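Next comes a single protein record:
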Amino acid sequence: MPIAVDAYTMRGVASGVSPRPGHIREAIEQEGRLVLERVQWRPLDGAPAQSIREASIPADDILIAVPAEPDMLPVHAQWHAIRLELGPYVVEGDMPTMPGFDPGRALTRPTGEFVLLRDVRLGQRSPETAVSPERRIGDCALVNRYVVESVQADLMLGFFFPGAEMIATQQDPPATPALGGASG
């Protein structure tokens, strides 16, 4: 079944339909490119949108891929709020880790070029001001982990995003139960 996809690149957004069955991550990582049909190309430079019959976008050129149908979300995951800056975009969403994940002790490292996020919001970066993503773009998205420039998260995720600046955010401290007995 074809899947509608928005592919965000440095120069614009290609919205089209992937004719390949299966998950978008598999299509991109196995073939090294994303083929889209019936494409609407929206450049970031303000030029008018164009309709294109077919586009083949190399995986390295895709910063963010957003399928219309959610890709496989992990079932038993802990979700961590994350903010990423990459190319002309700011992305906020939730990133999954397995229960008990400790980045300092993890033996397994991420595989593939893309990292999954859910509840994804997007904004355009501005060199003058801090930008908050102003619009929701999907239930899930795949982010090219090798082009991320800055990461804000409650975990240190350097091995997920090699070369990115890591900024730790504050976690809510666990609630401390009240101890019995009054002090006098």
User: Anything to note?
Assistant: Helices lie at 24-31.
